[in-house]
Design goal:
By secondary structure, this protein is mostly helical. Helices cover about 55% and strands about 5% of the residues. A two-stranded parallel sheet has the order 1-2. Helix 5 links the parallel strand 1 and strand 2. Helix 1 runs antiparallel to helix 2. The chain is globular and about 45 Å long.
């Protein structure tokens, strides 16, 4: 994990990023992220909720913001996480980034 940013940058430069992202997803990704969309995270949230462990829903799209349409999409996704959070008493707040890269 310590070397991940360097490896990712090098993989993008050498155009092997698809392979590197596949390796990340199959190895340490699940340690840090419950999933890539709300359907993937829902079972993880439920399991944690049943164990009295809270979750933090955070929609992150680093580097993906290009224009107003992208901002609207990000706002929609953030609202979806807030709505999902209402289904679980173990989710006390929502996390969001209000600036763009």
């Amino acid at each position: 994990v310590k070397f991940a940013p360097t490896i990712i940058q090098a993989s993008i430069y050498t155009k092997i990023d698809s392979l590197v992202f596949w390796i990340i997803k199959k190895t340490f990704f699940k340690h840090f992220c419950a999933g890539e969309d709300l359907e993937e995270v829902r079972p993880v949230i439920s399991k944690l909720h049943d164990a009295a462990i809270g979750s933090i829903l955070d929609y992150s799209a680093e580097g993906a913001v290009g224009g107003e349409e992208d901002l609207d999409t990000s706002a929609e996704k953030i609202m979806e996480t807030i709505v999902l959070g209402q289904d679980y008493s173990s989710i006390k707040f929502s996390c969001l980034k209000v600036t763009t890269p």
